[in-house]
Write a structure and sequence with these properties.
There is one protein chain. The two termini are 33 Å apart. Strands 3-4-2-1-9 form a 5-stranded mixed beta sheet. A 4-stranded antiparallel beta sheet has the order 5-6-8-7. It is globular. The protein has 2 domains: 45-169 and 372-383, NADH Oxidase (3-Layer(aba) Sandwich), CATH 3.40.109; 184-364, NADH Oxidase (3-Layer(aba) Sandwich). The protein is of the alpha+beta class. It has helices at residues 6-10, 17-36, 55-58, 62-71, 111-130, 164-169, 184-191, 205-222, 225-233, 239-245, 258-267, 270-273, 276-291, 306-323, 335-338, 342-350, 378-381; strands at residues 83-89, 92-97, 133-139, 148-156, 197-200, 295-301, 328-332, 355-364, 382-383. The longest helix is centred in the N-terminal third of the chain and has 20 residues, at 17-36. Helix 4 (62-71) runs antiparallel to helix 5 (111-130).
């Protein structure tokens, strides 16, 4: 679910008394903050750096710890970070999913969760290869809601290209996309010659449908109470909550910065997410976003089995790792695939052969921001 630009929201302060009181507080505190020289910055990933791996504490070697830390930098819906890792033996990990970090309202079949596990797995494979290890895996789950999904085996192998920097610097970017259409060479670079990628310019019939359908699907989801409640549960407005959970959506991750970021961290709560103004601004922000991009990239799979979703998630992550070097922002906009009737219309509307798994708004950036989304330490998702 997309969030809104708080600066625009503040400009509509006259809507109700509560908003007026908040803006009075905002105005009153702005001068105080400036005079005091206080920072408006919130909690970011770099502010919560964990210590290096402790083999005695986790049972992992320093390399194994780092491999899992890098794997956990994969994206996930609402940044729930659903993965778990159980050490089944030396060089043998069972990758699973934690039920409490699933999203039943917007992802009832765990389709998106499995795609995220695929991205996690791609980071794991890349990080292992950079350390001279081969990571082979097999699907052990019988259903998409099983607690254990993949059996991973590490063994000695040839050292591969080091992609650690690309893994660490990857991030989702929602704002600041230029309207220049992506060049063909950059589209080809993003796809890496792999199958399943489709690209549509904003001016194409498919691009126009994707833009309009994204706004309407966002509107439907914003007013679906179970989905909005689920979103509210995963927003970490307070710095204390961000430090406690190290997951979910923070103001920084939602690109609400500066004084506006300070304001929402101190005065917003889950009740605001369920209010009419937040829902309306979500739709307004989406309508603005779809007008500002360089095109739409889709990723299609031939089927929807667990193995196919894992592999599609891996392809998605490989694309993300290639994006920054071409100054291309990638913003997943999933509501079309989560809401009816658009979910059933997508394949025909874009002429896809297979199942659409990702709808991605893309565009060039003048400056690529650093990653800020929080991550749980390895110890937190490592199971006995």
């Amino acid at each position: 679910m997309n969030t809104y630009d708080l600066h625009n929201l503040m400009g509509r302060a006259q809507r109700n008394g509560r908003q007026c009181r908040r803006n009075f507080l905002l105005s009153a505190t702005a001068a105080g903050l400036a005079l005091a020289g206080l920072s408006c910055a919130g909690v970011t990933r770099t502010a919560l750096r964990e210590s290096a791996g402790d083999e005695g504490k986790t049972g992992l070697s320093p390399d194994e710890y780092e491999i899992l830390r890098l794997a956990s930098l994969a994206p996930s819906g609402h940044n729930t970070q659903p993965w778990t890792v159980r050490v089944a033996g030396k060089g043998n990990w069972i990758i699973g999913a934690e039920k409490s970090r699933m999203l039943p309202a917007v992802d009832p079949e765990n389709r998106e969760l499995l795609l995220s596990l695929g991205a996690f797995m791609e980071n794991l494979v890349e990080a292992a290869g950079a350390r001279g290890l081969s990571a082979e895996y097999s699907v052990v789950a019988r259903g998409s809601h099983d607690a254990e999904i993949l059996d991973v085996r590490l063994s000695g192998g040839a050292r591969t290209r080091d992609t650690d920097a690309a893994i660490v610097s990857r991030r989702t970017v929602r704002k600041g996309m230029l309207r220049d259409e992506l060049r063909g060479a950059d589209v080809a670079h993003l796809s890496g010659g792999e199958p399943g990628f489709m690209f549509f310019t904003p001016s194409s019939a498919q691009g126009a449908w994707l833009a309009q359908a994204t706004v309407e699907a966002n509107r439907a989801q914003a007013w679906r109470d179970d989905a909005q409640t689920e979103l509210a549960d995963w927003i970490r407005w307070r710095d204390a909550d961000a430090k406690k959970h190290r997951n979910g959506l923070t103001p920084e991750g939602m690109e609400i910065g500066g004084l506006a970021g300070w304001f929402v961290r101190n005065f917003y709560d889950r009740g605001d997410v369920l209010g009419k103004d937040f829902r309306d601004r979500t739709v307004d922000m989406t309508a603005d976003q779809v007008k500002n991009c360089g095109g739409w990239m889709l990723l299609v799979s031939s089927g929807a089995s667990i193995a196919e979703l894992i592999e599609t998630g891996r392809r998605f992550q490989r694309m993300l790792l290639r994006a920054r070097e071409r100054m291309v922002a990638v913003h997943p906009m999933t509501q079309i695939l989560e809401e009816s009737p658009w979910r059933g219309q997508a394949v025909r509307a874009v002429g896809a052969e297979g199942t659409v798994q990702f709808i991605l708004r893309t565009g060039y950036l003048a400056k690529y921001p650093d990653p800020v989304s929080l991550r749980r330490p390895v110890e937190w998702f490592l199971k006995a």
